[in-house]
């Protein structure tokens, strides 16, 4: 595939130290991140974006949390048992992220692909920050991350999220409810409190990382059209 | 810099050994452990890269040569954090003398040799307190190399530093890699108060020095068990009591 962005020169950078030995100029593809809670429509929007992008002739690759060859199975297992302490879990997720960054994201960007990332370091940081982890420690850790070309944060009110999750699964996920934090013994309450806290952190992170906040309380279609419009502008170098 | 466990008012103390593969550090810490146990001290031993949880991922990564310097570093940090939070910290709170065969300095030396930025690596391990005593076993490079190369003819990929592309010959690569790690260790030796031991001496001489230094720097009687360990089950009077001691740490 031909490089689709000859009219723009993306100012590529890592957030911190980055990955040793990477030539940033070679990363001619685009990295687009969709962030948001479970029930924000994240996965659906990514499927739609992939369809659309491929239809108009772009090669795409998808990545997401807990999908690395290296540690995803072990991470899943550890989470099931809920036996890892905070720093360990955090580093385990960082390993999963780094594996995908080096083995999928960077090679795909080098080949001129559009990489769609279903969540990124922001969710990982927000989860840890809500649990009291040290922010400078997290920033150093995730200094390996490449700055995306665009980050869309699908923002949905916690009350709406809880309705969507229950409508879909008739239950709430243990971790997405922050049950390990002991906010409430009632899962419904815990979910709302936890998601509210996560959103608070995202608002803070938004100031640092400057991502696009998309109102995802609306219909799927209106969110899709907003995303397409913004991504078109990005690809056209506007 | 992070404080030692004593400075942080932990009731326990942590002693670490560091050195190249083949420096004899594992033998020394094993003998130290035997002595402390015989003295009735509450002792716990922890080895680098031994957490059950992370083990399968690490061995898979190593076997398939999937690891990059970054993931190599992170997966070892994960292993360390798991042992640190679930074993070391609670035991140090409970007044144990914790013995670590390799500590964060192994990461400082190895990961930096592999090309990870020093401040990134140090930042990741900044949650860990400093040992109360760190022994560095410094043997001549050739001595360490020969010990490893004689005993174990086949070198593993990452062990030989083959991922660095220093040489296509695993033995040559191992030599170069170990040499660079030693340089990194020496560069941080002063900063982290390494007690540098002459590991060219015989085992007994080194152990006598180790025991003397530990006795001088740590008030061992404070770490004794209050009640003796439960007695072992009685040994049958007829059969011979077979006991084989093997240092499996190497």
- Return the CATH architecture of chain B: 3-Layer(aba) Sandwich
> What is the name of the CATH topology of chain A?
Rossmann fold
CATH class of chain A: Alpha Beta
In quaternary terms, these chains amount to heterodimer
CATH fold naming of chain B: Rossmann fold
Straight-line N-to-C gap of chain A: 21 Å
How many strands appear in the DSSP assignment of chain B?
Answer: 5
- Adjacency order of strands in the biggest sheet of chain B: 2-3-1-4-5
Sheet having the most strands of chain B: 5 strands, parallel
Q: So, the CATH homologous superfamily of chain B?
A: P-loop containing nucleotide triphosphate hydrolases
Shape summary of chain A: globular
**H/E series of chain A:** EHEHHEHHEHHEH
Which second-level CATH architecture of chain A applies?
3-Layer(aba) Sandwich
Overall average pLDDT of chain B: 89
Question: Which CATH C-level class of chain B is it?
Answer: Alpha Beta
Summarize the structure.
Chain A is of the alpha/beta class and 238 residues long. Chain A has one domain: P-loop containing nucleotide triphosphate hydrolases (Rossmann fold).
Q: What would you say this structure looks like, in words?
A:
The complex is a heterodimer of chains A (238) and B (250). Chain A has a single domain (33-235), classed as P-loop containing nucleotide triphosphate hydrolases (Rossmann fold, 3-Layer(aba) Sandwich), CATH 3.40.50. Chain A is built from eight helices and five strands, in the order βαβααβααβααβα. Residues 1-8 of chain A have low confidence and may be disordered. The relative contact order of chain A is 0.19. In chain A, α2 (72-81) runs antiparallel to α3 (86-110), α4 crosses α7 (187-209) and α6 packs across α7 (187-209). Chain A is 49% helix and 11% strand. With 238 residues, chain A is of the alpha/beta class. Chain B has one domain: Rossmann fold, CATH 3.40.50. In chain B, α2 packs antiparallel against α3 (69-93). The radius of gyration of chain B is 19 Å and the shape is globular. The A-B interface holds A 16-17, 19-21, 69-71, 73-74, 78, 83-88, 90-92, 94-95, 98-99, 102-103, 134, 136-137, 140-141, 143-144 and B 53-54, 56-57, 60-61, 66-71, 74-75, 77-78, 81-82, 84-86, 115-117, 119-120, 123-124, 126-127.
